[in-house]
Amino acid sequence: MKKHLLISKKIFFAASATILVFVGTVVSAFVNRVPVLIFQPSTAIEDSINYLQIHPPIFPKQISFADENVPLALPDIRERFDKELIINTYLQGSSMLNMKQTTRWFPQIESILKQNGVPPDFKYLCMAESGLQQVVSRAGAAGFWQFMEETGRKYGLEINEEIDERYNVEKATQAACSYLTNSKNELGNWTLAAAAYNCGIAGAEKFMEQQHQNNYYDLLLPDETMRYVFRILAIKEIYSHPMRYGFNLTENDFYPPYQFRVISVSNSIPDLAQFAIENGTNYKMLKMLNPWLRKPFLKNMKHKTYDIKLPL
User: Fold this and answer.
1) Same domain for 189 and 306?
2) How much is the pLDDT for 204?
3) Which of 29, 46, 55, 219 lies 20 to 30 A from 22 at CA?
4) How far apart are CA 71 and CA 61, in angstroms?
5) Same domain assignment for residues 36 and 171
6) What is the C-alpha to C-alpha distance for residues 306 and 295, in angstroms, rounded to an integer?
7) Is 4 a residue whose pLDDT tops 50?
8) Is the same domain home to 85 and 196?
């Protein structure tokens, strides 16, 4: 009992001291005309209501991929597209970073797509694959278009210890065009060609034959492929109308294209860093413009001609 009384007295004296300090501060402030910030209990619920204004993204009346209309009137199609639209709208950080890259890379990619008769919407497939970054997946797919080694070689890319053209944007886009055109010819339309970029041409043909369907939107496919085209569609919608989805970028916010000159070489280069210095730049910039050069040297035993980009 005495122990409890002792604790109560300590609490009482501590509280009294706090009150006296507070009163003294207020009186001093009044005398000296110094403003005082008085603490008030936080209204956390009200604050969250005022701060978090999350709304469903605007749903478009219609959308198409490669001029092939999406049947949004079908409930499951509408919901699958809505899911990807919500996810990609509220990935604000990565979506904005990717969006800022579009002015650097889309014109170049669109030009190659056009030259090969591939619809411009496939640039959004490239975005869905890599975010326009030179990334490597856990499965080993690499570059903007995420080619596996075997597939890359099949479509004309040089891939070895020194050279990996999956990281060459121009050549990888050219290879992707060949793959997509082949897929479209095999499967019948561009939407299925896009789906086959995820599950493979043979995989798409197997599901089409099993289910007696020739329309992507009527097929039951593996989960990733079921989402794949809808993710591309969501990216297309958001990036085509950024302000509609809360991305307020000015012209100066976008990244400019790289400015470079090209030197053609057919000999070996024992030291690429020294080669860069001799040509008025450094190894960092050389690698930035030529990520397909995988070693700090280029043996080039067969004396092939390579175009190396250097800063202006």
Assistant:
1) no
2) 97
3) 46
4) 11
5) no
6) 15
7) no
8) yes
